[in-house]
Design goal:
InterPro entries: Monooxy_af470. 39% of the residues lie in helices and 23% in strands. With 245 residues, the protein is of the alpha+beta class. The protein folds into 3 domains: 4-47; 61-68 and 188-239, no CATH class; 78-185, Alpha-Beta Plaits.
Length: 245
C-alpha cells in the first residue's frame, strides 16, 4: 500500500500529463468539477445526518449484554479471538499475494457464519488497519465466540485447514506474517458502552441464547439505564439478571 505522499505525487504526475496532452481548459476543468461535486455532496449530506446518512448510528447510550440463560452456566461468557496479518513487502499486498490470502480468510469467515450455532460463532468486526505501520500493512480482525470449545471446532474446519496448509506448505506467502491472540471472559466480566455509535464489536454480534425450543439469535444491544453510570454497575446488572433467572 502506497503512502499518502506517493498518491499525491501520482496525482501531480497525472495533472502534468493532462496539461501536456489535453487542452488547458479541459485539464483544469476536471479537478474543479470533482471538487465542486464533493463540496455539494458534503453540504447536502450535512443537512441529512441520521436520516439519509449515518443511519446505522444508534442514538443515545447502549450496552451489549451477554445473556445469562444458558444450559451450562459455568461456561457462560465470551471469547474474543484476535486474528492479524501483516504484509512485509514494500510494494504492498498484491506482490505478496495478499488478495489470495484474503480469499482464504473470507472462506473461513463464511464457514464460521454457516456453522454459527454449532460452533458458537457470534460475529466479528470488519477488517481494521493500523495507521502507524510505516513500513508494512497490518490488518486485524476481532471475532467473538461463545466458548473456547466452539473456537477449537472452527480450527478443525475445512476452510481453516485449507488456509493453514496454504500458508505453511505452499510457500506462497513468504512476505506475509500472521498472528492471533485469544481472550476468554467469564460472565459478569465484560462491560461495553456505545454512545451515538453504530453497532460495533460485541455490539454487532448475534448472541446465541438457549431456549426451550432450541437456540435463538438475539441482538445484544439494550438501552443503557440511568442507574448504570459506571462499568461496575453495568456488570452488576448482568449478575442481578443471572440471580433472577
Amino acid at each position: 500500500m502506497f503512502r499518502v505522499s506517493t498518491w499525491l505525487a501520482l496525482g501531480s504526475l497525472l495533472q502534468i500529463l493532462s496539461l501536456v496532452f489535453l487542452p488547458l481548459r479541459l485539464s483544469g476543468l476536471a479537478p474543479i468539477l470533482l471538487l465542486l461535486q464533493r463540496f455539494v455532496k458534503a453540504a447536502r449530506e450535512s443537512r441529512q445526518i441520521y436520516t439519509k446518512v449515518f443511519r446505522d448510528v444508534r442514538l443515545g447510550r447502549w450496552t451489549a449484554v451477554i445473556p445469562s440463560k444458558r444450559a451450562d452456566q459455568k461456561e457462560a461468557g465470551v471469547v474474543m479471538f484476535v486474528l492479524g496479518a501483516r504484509v512485509n513487502h514494500p510494494q504492498g499486498r498484491l506482490p505478496a499475494n495478499g488478495r489470495q490470502l484474503g480469499n482464504l480468510y473470507d472462506d473461513m469467515w463464511q464457514e464460521a457464519d454457516t456453522n454459527r450455532v454449532k460452533w458458537g460463532y457470534l460475529g466479528r468486526t470488519p477488517m481494521l488497519m493500523s495507521t502507524n505501520d510505516e513500513k508494512g500493512f497490518t490488518m486485524i480482525w476481532l471475532s467473538y465466540w461463545r466458548d473456547i470449545q466452539g473456537l477449537h471446532q472452527f480450527s478443525k474446519s475445512t476452510a481453516h485447514i485449507t488456509g493453514q496448509k496454504a500458508y505453511q506448505g505452499d510457500n506462497k506467502f513468504p512476505h506475509i506474517g500472521i498472528m492471533h491472540e485469544l481472550y476468554y471472559a467469564r460472565k459478569d466480566s465484560t462491560e461495553t458502552l456505545y454512545n451515538n455509535f453504530p453497532p460495533f464489536g460485541l455490539g454487532a454480534t448475534k448472541l446465541i441464547v438457549d431456549g426451550e425450543d432450541g437456540p435463538t439469535l438475539e441482538d445484544p444491544l439494550i438501552p443503557d439505564a440511568k442507574n448504570w453510570s459506571t462499568m461496575f454497575e453495568r456488570m452488576k446488572r448482568e449478575r442481578e439478571s443471572s440471580d433472577e433467572a
